[in-house]
Each structure stands twice: as structure tokens, then as C-alpha cells.
Amino acid sequence: MMLLRSLASLCILAAVAFAVPAQEKRIHHHADLSDHAHDDAHGFQYDHEAFLGKEEAKTFDQLTPEESKDRLAKIVDRIDTNKDGYVSHTELHYWIKHRQRRYIEENVNKHWNDYDKNQDGKIAWEEYKNTTYGFYLDEEFDDIEDKATYKAMLTRDERRFKNADRDRDGIATREEFTAFLHPEEFDYMRDVVVQETVEDIDKNGDGKINMDEYIGDMYSPESGEREPDWVQTERKHFSDFRDANKDGYLDGDEVAHWILPGEVDHADNEAKHLIHETDTDKDGRLTLSEMLDKMDFIKISTITDYGSMRVDGHDEL
What we know:
Blueprint: H1 3-10, H2 22-25, H3 45-52, H4 54-61, H5 65-79, H6 89-115, E1 123-124, H7 125-138, H8 147-164, E2 171-172, H9 174-181, H10 190-201, E3 209-210, H11 211-216, H12 229-242, E4 249-250, H13 252-259, H14 266-278, H15 288-293, H16 295-299, E5 301-302
Antiparallel strand pairs: 1-2, 3-4
Subcellular location: Endoplasmic reticulum
Keywords: Calcium, Endoplasmic reticulum, Metal-binding, Repeat, Signal
GO cellular component, one term: endoplasmic reticulum
């Protein structure tokens, strides 16, 4: 039974950390670079995972210092596509984008055989529904404590599946199933991403997001706790920037502008950030020596989940 795993993988709009900065919490970066907030003041796990890929970062952290250096050297050699001994911004940007694409491909591949029960190379809604909810459908969720939540999740999954299914035949091709699992990657799924975000945050059901709902999605105060400065900053962002028409609410268009800033290239920004933090001689490019000198920065950062990256000759750029 795959219900819990499915809920975890499909609720990509849900909160990913406690009290993370709001600008990182809901914004879709086209395959999140990391599960961690990007906050260098509290460590570099974001950058670590963006550079290595999340699963590779886990492996990397388990190596001895000498093994880590050897693994990093192999990775740097692969990033350096023109073999001039330097990692340029262009090469690093391409590498991070490559890890994004690989994460999405591997995530879809991981789920594909679980749902394609008749092995016809497609996934019908009935296949997905029965695999994910089948046991509970027979009981109408009667043995589930939060029955309403599971029924709502089924309705939401069906709506998203139908939107991903461009030819409306009730069957998802691999590309359509990718749009179902990763709607933020597809322009035609934009409205679904916005709708699900509003539903997640809109607690009073009026179809829009007020200030309290906006703040409540990212911060729950403890009794007697002083509101952190970053929350005050987010209140100001809501009033000054997010609420463009100044009516006190975020409507669909304003939510879309917030969470789907298509003009922002976060892989590009991260490449620039990694070079800024690691480029000792400030020539705008990195050497293996510079990266080794900043090994703690590489090993303790905060970026994403691009699937397993093996440096054994099998993972092709």
C-alpha cells in the first residue's frame, strides 16, 4: 500500500521545514535545489545538496576525509567539461541544472512501475487511484481517523491528474505523469499549482489569502514568544510587494507571481553563490584546490534532492 508515500511525494506544496524563510518556503524553483532553507548563517547544507545532489550528499557525508577529497575530485573533473582545470560559472550552472533534470527523471522512474500495473507504458487514473487508495476505497475511508482529509486528497489527486492528462483520455503518458508529479515544471499546470497553494493556506475558505493566513503558513508562535524579525519582514513583504492591488488579500494572480517567479533562475543564482563563497583568488572560476580548501562549505550546505549521483562512470552528463 503506497498511500503514505504517495501523499508525501505529491504534496509538494506542503511546508518543508519549521519556520523557514517564507521566500524559500512556497516559491517553486523548478525542482527544489534542497529540502533545507538557504541560510548560510546556520550552515551550508543547501549549497551542499545543490552541488552534489541530495542522495549523493548523504553518501558524501559518510566518507572519510581522504575519500571525500577523492570523490570531490571526480565530481569536479566531470563538471569541468572543457578540461581546462577550472570550473566556470557556465559549467557549474549547467551541472546544477543537470542535477535538477536527473532528480525529476529519477523520481518519475521510481514511481512508474509501482503504478503501471499492466505494463503498457502508460498509467491510467484507475491504476493510480487503485494503487494509492484502493484498500481504503473499499471501506470509504471508514477506518481512517482523518477521513475528510483522505477524501479531499483523493479529489485533489484526481483534479491534478485530469489537468496533467492533456488529451483527456484518462491515461497518462510518461510526460503527463511527470506533469502530475511535478506540476511546477510545466506551464500548462500553472493554475493547478496556484490553486493547490491557495487551498493549503486559505483557512477560512474564501478563496484568497489574508495576512494572518500568509504568516500562519510559515510561523506558529510559541506561548509568550516574541515574533522573530524575519516574520516582521514577511508582514512587510505581504503588504508592500505580495499584495499588489493593496486590498489586504492575495488573489490567484498575486499568488502566482509569488510562488512561480518564472524569470528567476535559481540554478544560476546558486552557481554564482557557490563561486562567491569558494573562489579564493576572486578570478570568477574555481579550481579543485579552492574547493578542497572550502571542504567544510561543500560538505555542510543546504540545497536539494536530485536523486542518486554515482561517480563510478555510470552517471552520464
